[in-house]
Amino acid sequence: MSALLTHIQHYCLQDGPGIRTTVFFKGCPLQCRWCHNPEAISPKPEVLLSEAKCIRCGECFKPCSHQTSSNLSRARCPECRYNCPTLARQISGTRYTVEALLKELLRDRLFYEESRGGVTLSGGEPLLQADFLRKLLPGLKREEISVALDTCGFAPEEVFLEIALQCSLILFDLKMVSPELHLQYTGRSNELILQNLESLTRRADAPRLWLRIPVIPGVNDSETELEAMLRRLESLGGIEQIHLLPYHKIGLEKYARLGRRSPLEDLEAPSAASMERLLERFKEVHPRVKIGG
Predict the structure, then answer these.
(1) Cα–Cα distance for residue pair 261/255, rounded to 1 Å
(2) What's phi and psi for 24, nearest 5 deg?
(3) Pairing mode, if any, of strands 20-25 and 118-122?
(4) Is the separation of the CB atoms in 238 and 201 below 8 Å?
(5) Cβ neighbours of residue 256 under 8 Å, at least 6 residues apart?
(6) What are the residue boundaries of the structural domains of the chain, listed by start?
(7) Residues 167-208 pLDDT 10s
(8) How open is the CA angle 175-178-182, to the nearest 5 degrees?
(9) In CATH, which superfamily holds the domain spanning 2-45+93-291?
(10) Model-wide pTM > 0.90
């Protein structure tokens, strides 16, 4: 049993309480047009190329033995895992067994214990690799490691609840309420997402729940969408915190390294003033709201 990961990030301070180790799973059912981790969308390994680091050593352009056409080089082949001398070429997508990942995560146990932190499962979407989580979570529980699940909520309800109820914290990413907007900008309906969110909030045994809302200018910050979001939040219980996450351009460089262009490459980050106005609006329906998180 193994899972495909993009990377493991140690000493994280943004993915839940305390010091955490965040595991980024590869593959996501959504195609968010503002995604800042585009290398985590595809469920297959991909190549990241950085022109700035390239020293033109020519290693990339040697013939690839994995392709059917002999004129293709190793530059974009994810199966060619040679060592680039400057790390200009990297593979996004490494397989870990349950045992290997547990060993890596337990290296940071002291940080978890001292800071009341733990492990965060992120991505991509961890629930796409639910079979692996079914094996991993009991191991973390045996070691008394706190686990947070960072999820978009798009998964069959029985799978979502099965995994969520084994975690101590859910970081639920709610993009928008409008089904039309959600389909347009993520490629999927949000019916299942909203259903899973409501199912979780109705559970007496539910873990702690932090709602994370990306703020995408011109996409989900209209007055119509804002009012719909606030009404939805008023109808839900069990939400401990709400985090408003302003759009940023970090993903643009990753799109370039993948050899693609961002669908929203001209989009600008929201201003500090507009974020403060949103903060005040959300505080009308929930006492614990903050920018970032």
Answers:
(1) 6
(2) -100, 110
(3) parallel
(4) yes
(5) none
(6) 2-45+93-291, 46-91
(7) 999 999 999 999 999 999 999 999 999 999 999 999 999 999
(8) 50
(9) Aldolase class I (3.20.20.70)
(10) yes
